[in-house]
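Something for you to look into today, if you have time. What I am after is a single protein written out in full by you. I want to see for myself how the chain folds. Could you add the entry underneath, on a fresh line?
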Amino acid sequence: MIALLLLGATAMSKEATAQINVSINIGSQPGWGPTGYNHADYYYLPDINCYYDVGRSQFIYPNGSSWAYAQSLPGRYRNVNLYNTYKVVVNRPDPYRYNRDDISRYARYKGVHNQPVIRDSRDSRYYASKGHPMHSQWEKNRGGVDAGPRGDRGRHYGRR
């Protein structure tokens, strides 16, 4: 009976830990990124069949028979407006390995240009994004202090 209770408590503890260990990377997402996501590893852009690596701030695009990483898109994409191009959040490693699947799965988003972006959001959680117009005000409000153990940037409780 006690072993059963311990097993149940362990399972519940692991489930609670899994729920708590959710990574938030809104501050790393660009202003042209889609709203509605606290975390994004990559964006897939169906209009141009490219990916964007949020953590590295790099585009991943087809280059012959391989994939290239770069801080900006090459000249052939110069007419792409990232603010109105649809982005699909993809949270799996090396997303380009599944490019054929992504092309067919997300083809319906080609030409869709009404996705809300972080830059235009009035939700204060997006102010952490450097691409948001309120980012500098957000930085001032947090006092330039790195997040403490509770993530309370710029807020100090009690005595220092």
The longest helix spans residues 2-20. Helices lie at 2-20, 99-105, 135-142. Residues 26-141 form one domain.
